[in-house]
Design a protein that fits this description.
By secondary structure, this protein is an alpha+beta fold. It is 18% helix and 37% strand.
C-alpha cells in the first residue's frame, strides 16, 4: 500500500509499504516500509512513518521494519517511535552500509 502527505492542497510526501525484501523476514506478519520520499516539508517523513505503522498494525501486521543508509541520522524514524536495531546483514536483500529500524513493541507508534 501507499500513503501520501499533504501540506494544505500541496502533495509533499509519499511512502510505500509491502512485503519485506529479505526472504527470512517475509513471514506474513512483517511489513516493510520500502520507500519514504518528501520534498523537505517539516515533519512530513515522521507523519508518513507514523501513518504507515498505524495502518500496518490495523491490517494485522505484528512487526514493521525499515532501513536507512548508515550515513542518515534516522531523526524522522526516532520521532515516529522507531528504534535502531543494528546494521543490516550484507546480502542480496540488503545493501552494505544500511541500518535496520523497528517501531516500539506493543503496536504503538506516534
Amino acid at each position: 500500500f501507499a500513503v501520501a502527505c499533504y501540506d494544505g492542497d500541496r502533495l509533499c510526501g509519499v511512502a510505500i509499504c509491502g512485503r519485506p525484501v529479505a526472504r527470512y523476514l517475509d513471514d506474513g506478519l512483517t511489513l516493510e516500509i520500502l520507500r519514504c520520499c518528501t520534498d523537505g516539508t517539516g515533519n512530513a517523513c515522521s507523519k508518513l512513518y507514523g501513518a504507515c505503522c498505524r495502518i500496518g498494525f490495523v491490517m494485522g501486521y505484528d512487526r514493521i521494519i525499515t532501513y536507512t543508509l548508515a550515513s542518515e541520522t534516522g531523526a524522522s524514524l526516532r520521532a515516529s517511535g522507531f528504534a535502531f536495531d543494528g546494521m543490516a546483514r550484507h546480502g542480496r536483500a540488503s545493501a552494505a552500509g544500511t541500518t535496520m529500524w523497528l517501531p516500539p513493541s506493543g503496536n504503538t507508534v506516534g
